[in-house]
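To close the section, here is one more complete example, presented without commentary so you can practise reading it yourself. The ligand is iron/sulfur cluster.
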Amino acid sequence: MKELVCIVCPNGCTLHIEGEGKNIKISGQKCRKGLTFAQNEMTNPMRSICSTVRTAFRDVPVLPVKVSCEIPKDKIFEVMQAINRVTVQERIGTGDIIIKNVCGTAADIIATSNILKE
Ligand code: SF4
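Output:
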């Protein structure tokens, strides 16, 4: 028996998982989203990342960023290293791409603020 906390909503249901792979029995969820979450966690766990990148501008030394879509959980460290290597050289804004297809995940690193343009 494995236990997971569902992170889809603030309820944080404790999910109980029996079995392995596709032959699992899930209990403890209050809704269907918990079932999907547990199935994904047991086969291909995905996560979103929000972070900041350095900029070349003294007035705004860091810029908030995020991934454009969820990435495999086991790629988080590699993606964070890629984010930490970047220094933004232009006054970009919300939605602008900073790293395309980061670490081959098909996700882009995009700006989430217009603070460099204000
Ligand atoms: S199982 Fe449903 S209600 Fe419970 S935390 Fe997940 S999404 Fe929220």
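Once you have examined the tokens, check your reading against these statements. The domain at 50-111 is CATH 3.10.530.10 (CPE0013-like fold). The chain has a mean pLDDT of 95.
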